[in-house]
Specification:
The protein is mostly helical. Helix content is 65%, strand content 2%. β1 and β2 form a beta hairpin. InterPro entries: Cyt_b561_bac/Ni-Hgenase, Cytochrome_b561_oxidase, Di-haem_cyt_TM.
Length: 168
């Protein structure tokens, strides 16, 4: 059995990480932060698109995805819970960001293209707070995910971390 993920999934994994880091570092009100706002919104759009592309590839390559030996039932529950919330965040955080942007302005351009915005958004303060909270929660989950990969590598000494790296 193969012990590494298919290359398209590995590529999307690391591109998603780079985009998430870029979006997190450029957070703020995109209507007043100029180029940082452009990067933040464009990155959020790309993360949202990559989420669906990633789901498609996971489905297409489901038989090639390595199976890791799980140590106990708690680890299974934790793995499935964190994975579910990571994937949910890749979808929900950009949607909340789009709703937040729609509440801030009637018109926003990314790379000279007008974004389709909602005409009416109720509870804009709550949506902006939810977007920020969910984004921070997502970053915490990413950190937990990275710590788990390092624990697998250094403590359990299995191939979980290596399975998401490019092989020579």
């Amino acid at each position: 059995m193969k012990n590494n993920y298919p290359k398209p999934i590995i590529i999307m994994h690391w591109i998603t990480l780079a985009l998430v880091a870029m979006v997190y570092l450029t957070a703020g009100d995109p209507t007043i932060t100029d180029w940082k706002g452009q990067i933040h919104v464009a990155g959020g759009i790309l993360i949202f698109i990559l989420f669906f592309l990633r789901l498609s590839f996971v489905f297409l390559y489901r038989k090639s995805i390595p199976k890791t030996e799980i140590i106990n039932s708690y680890q299974i529950v934790l793995f499935k819970t964190v994975r579910f919330f990571l994937y949910l965040s890749l979808c929900i955080v950009p949607i909340a960001g789009w709703m937040t942007l729609s509440s801030f302005t009637d018109n926003f351009q990314v790379l000279s293209l007008n974004l389709p915005l909602l005409s009416t958004v109720w509870g804009s303060d709550y949506i902006a707070d939810a977007h920020q909270f969910l984004g921070n929660l997502f970053i915490a989950l990413v950190g937990l995910h990275a710590c788990a990969a390092l624990i697998h590598h250094f403590i359990f000494k299995d191939n979980v971390l290596k399975s998401m790296l490019f092989k020579k």
